[in-house]
């Protein structure tokens, strides 16, 4: 009976040792998994907070633009009311015509076929049909005549 008791105690000690070794080897993975899960949760919470901040920023920006548009509309209405109250229609028409006449007299630039302003060109025009134009490599150079 003593030998059975000794075998039982030895089996218990060996079982406890094997259990401890197995728990130790698999326990490290569980700890690592728990750490990774905590980091993932922390990153997800941070991402959610960031999304909320971005959403709040754009909502505030939209509200500021709405108020800006309202302010511009109020200024425009104020100017329109003032113009209608302070100026008669004939005065306004005469003022516009005077501004147009002044603009036409002050501008002496090139015009297109319809009498309007010609847009700038991205090339240099030729002076004559045989001329190479200002952007040519030999523009302004005189050709030497060979005397042979």
Word description of this protein:
The chain is mainly α. It has a domain at 8-88. 70% of the residues lie in helices and 0% in strands. The protein is built from two helices and no strands. It has helices at residues 2-86, 89-106. The longest helix is centred in the first third of the chain and has 85 residues, at 2-86. The radius of gyration is 45 Å and the shape is elongated. The chain starts with a helix and ends in a 42-residue tail after the last helix. The model has no long low-confidence stretch (mean pLDDT 80).
Short synopsis of the structure:
This protein is 70% helix and 0% strand. It is built from 2 helices and no strands.
Distance between the termini: 139 Å
Largest sheet: none
Number of strands: 0
The geometry reads as elongated
Number of helices: 2
Helix content range: 55-70%
- Which runs of at least 5 residues are low in confidence (pLDDT < 50)? none
**Rg for CA atoms:** 45 Å
């Amino acid at each position: 009976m003593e030998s059975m008791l000794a075998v039982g105690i030895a089996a218990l000690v060996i079982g406890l040792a094997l259990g401890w070794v197995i728990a130790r080897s698999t326990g490290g993975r569980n700890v690592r998994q728990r750490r990774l899960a905590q980091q993932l949760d922390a990153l997800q919470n941070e991402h959610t907070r960031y999304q909320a901040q971005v959403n709040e920023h754009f909502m505030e920006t939209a509200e500021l633009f709405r108020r800006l548009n309202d302010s511009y509309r109020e200024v425009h209405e104020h100017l329109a009311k003032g113009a209608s109250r302070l100026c008669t229609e004939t005065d306004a028409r005469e003022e516009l015509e005077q501004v147009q006449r002044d603009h036409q007299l002050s501008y002496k630039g090139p015009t297109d076929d319809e009498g309007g302003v010609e847009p700038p060109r991205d090339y240099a025009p030729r002076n004559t049909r045989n001329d190479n134009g200002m952007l040519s490599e030999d523009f302004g150079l005189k050709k030497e005549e060979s005397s042979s």
